[in-house]
């Protein structure tokens, strides 16, 4: 049964961790940060780090995936090989030979070098086997057999770091995942913008207030948000604090995912409570009750609530690959596959501002084996997208590339079809995901940034409409959200107005959906997934003459 089967996918449990081991070896290359260039780094020896990872056969995932290799048209294969020859050999620091945008300028090079050496000696935050497992799940989403739910803070902060905030966001993602899983009757891949989502790109490197000009706030792992000279000075020590917070966050997420907090019966009861207290609860109550009935059926069939498959869940982490010196410091060579993994997160994405074909960020990401996301706006040229995918996924491996579209509803209907067609003509396998947040940011009369819920919903609807039209798979959603009862996005069934914004506006960067708005959006998407599933079944029956 789809519901039962899909709940078995979880953050690898403690038991699975000890079933396999690999050596994750820090690169022996010394760091040579590009701001400014320096030649003072000395070669240093490093000790191999032996770390356990998720159980799986010791294999090279690319070499052993024969079916994946054969799916790529020969013309695409030739193009990819030519592209790689032009790019040259990749090393963990080859990105330093490219133009690097959105990187801070640290005032003390020696302190920066010292911090990077320290982080390089730290254990990995995630394990290579976990990243490979996520890639396999995302490959299913690319084929229309799973759905990605990716969400979390716009930018994590040191100030708001506490167990309750982590728990609340995790809880909402669990609730959303259960609703989407039942609506689509397929596994839901839960990936948090958590445990590392600190750095933020800025449209202007400087901010000016009352005639005072200071460096822009770039995230808590770079500098502080207070508008004073000391806070805005990039401080490399913040990277160590970000590492520690990321490790602690993931440790708690693992405990929540495998310790019973994620039990399906508990999650279903939370959703029932939401529908009882929602102003539009009638719209979602039927679906919530059907989930509850399905659990009753499974219990009667012997799949009781205390069965491990019903009490644990899979969960992965992700963030934007922006602060390259930090990312390089956590890049390790996995001895089981011979591939490099950026062990700061399971999944990384390249942003709209840093996805240049000849840029440093693309150069770094092409050499790490993590699953990758590409943020795409209406400015993306279809030919450029195909070239970017060729660079990042020359083997055309399912699950390697996720295209995260952020355009606004109207642009989505006009631009997305051309991107889908170009990728299809190139024979490239990708997972298409909607980010309905970034294309819908407006300024409220009070001066605060906000996002209308109706606009977010409209973009999600446009995303599904286009994929229905093109015969492609809507593979997931990517949301900036929180489990807190904030007032940052206007609208939703528990209406937030412009006047409400200032009451609980806590974001350090962009406005987030609150818990109620996030869950409401999940019910809306679940209804669309259900409709799509039923239409697909009817079409299949018709083709068989049934």
Automatic annotation (TrEMBL):
Annotated EC: 2.5.1.54
GO MF entry, a single one: 3-deoxy-7-phosphoheptulonate synthase activity
Region (Disordered): 61-82
GO cellular component: chloroplast
Biased composition (Polar residues): 65-82
Gene Ontology BP term (one): aromatic amino acid family biosynthetic process
Binding annotation for Mn(2+): 154, 438, 480, 510
Reaction equations catalysed: D-erythrose 4-phosphate + phosphoenolpyruvate + H2O = 7-phospho-2-dehydro-3-deoxy-D-arabino-heptonate + phosphate
Pathway: Metabolic intermediate biosynthesis; chorismate biosynthesis; chorismate from D-erythrose 4-phosphate and phosphoenolpyruvate: step 1/7
Protein name: Phospho-2-dehydro-3-deoxyheptonate aldolase
Source species of the chain: Trema orientale (Charcoal tree)
